[in-house]
Amino acid sequence: MTIIKKSESNKVTPTSSTTIREYLMNEQAISGAVAEINGRYPEKGFAVNEVSKELVYILSGGGEIFSKSGKQSFVLGDVIFIDKHEQFAWKGNFSMFMVTTPKFDPKQHKIL
User: Is 3.30.1780.10 the CATH classification of the domain at 48-102?
Assistant: First the structure.
């Protein structure tokens, strides 16, 4: 069993509208993070995970997720699955818990 305290997490701010708190552990199969988005991420275009699949639970607020096939709205309590190679963008004012498998590596996350 592993417990990662909030005080041990790694805070990153990839854009002015997005803050991510990474809960890092020595596990290659899975990782978790909490993100707060107030605006759009990425600011232009789409993001894509080339290796990791992502499962998201909306902790508060709501917004829209965009893909090549359109957009969908979400609110508190919704769950969103993003497959690897799927292009996406977030817009709204919300916080979410993200689980990625395998472990998230920023080198495999691209902005298109």
Answer: no
Taken in order 40, 97, 20, 25, is the CA torsion positive or negative?
negative
Q: How far apart are alpha carbons 37 and 97 in whole angstroms?
A: 12
d(CA 43, CA 15): 8
Each residue of 65-102: pLDDT tens digit?
999 999 999 999 999 999 999 999 999 999 999 999 99
- In degrees and rounded to multiples of 5, residue 106 shows phi and psi of -60, -20
Task: To the nearest 10°, report the CA torsion of 4, 5, 10, 16.
Answer: 120
Q: One-letter amino acid identity for 73?
A: S
Q: Say which amino acid occupies 59.
A: L
Q: What is the pTM of this model?
A: 0.94
Name residues whose C-beta falls within 8 Å of residue 106's C-beta, 6 or more positions apart in sequence.
none
> CA-to-CA distance for 13 and 5, rounded, in angstroms?
19
**Structural domain boundaries in the chain:** 48-102
